[in-house]
Amino acid sequence: MTDARDRIATHVHEDPGVHFNAVVRATDLAPGQVQHHAHRLVSAGDLAVERVSGRTHYFPPEYDDWERGVVALARRETARDALSYLLDAGPSRPAAVAEGVGVARSTLEHHLDALTARDVVEKRRDAHNRVTLALVRPEATVRLLADVDPSVADRFVDRFERLLDDFLD
């Protein structure tokens, strides 16, 4: 394996779910180099790739599809905060989660769309058609959240969303 591939693979193993731009920054390689070598690593089975919400995330190959989705989504602060809220509070109404996380209900719904599509969170409906949110696999979610260390760029995007929510309220 080349030095560039070693650096990319090492970084991905140390920071599972890291997105493409963060790999570029961390390895001091040109984007084209990272793209070329990451593609080779994925083709060889040394890395796995997941595209979530317009971002390409890289993982060690032992992560399955569901785990990759959880980690990639949890790199967004609002999604991670919603997961943490549900871990702490248990099944909850969407309004309570939005209030607990400190975001507008529409912002929460945006993140819930991806979380429910990946079977991380489920929307349960009662006899009166009221929705309760619950984690599908809470124990596995706890384990995977330990792998998440969002980048500064991810934090800025999330904070900007929250600033807009506050401004529009």
Automatic annotation (TrEMBL):
Task: Return the InterPro entries for the record.
Answer: HTH_HVO_0163_N, WH-like_DNA-bd_sf, WH_DNA-bd_sf
> Which stretches make up the HVO-0163 N-terminal HTH domain?
2-70
Domain of life, source organism? Archaea
Q: One short Pfam family name for this protein?
A: HTH_HVO_0163_N
Database matches in SUPFAM superfamilies? Winged helix' DNA-binding domain
Question: What PANTHER family does the record tag this protein with?
Answer: HTH ARSR-TYPE DOMAIN-CONTAINING PROTEIN (PTHR36216:SF1), TRANSCRIPTIONAL REGULATOR, TRMB (PTHR36216)
Q: What is this protein called?
A: ArsR family transcriptional regulator
**Natural source organism:** Halobacterium sp. NMX12-1
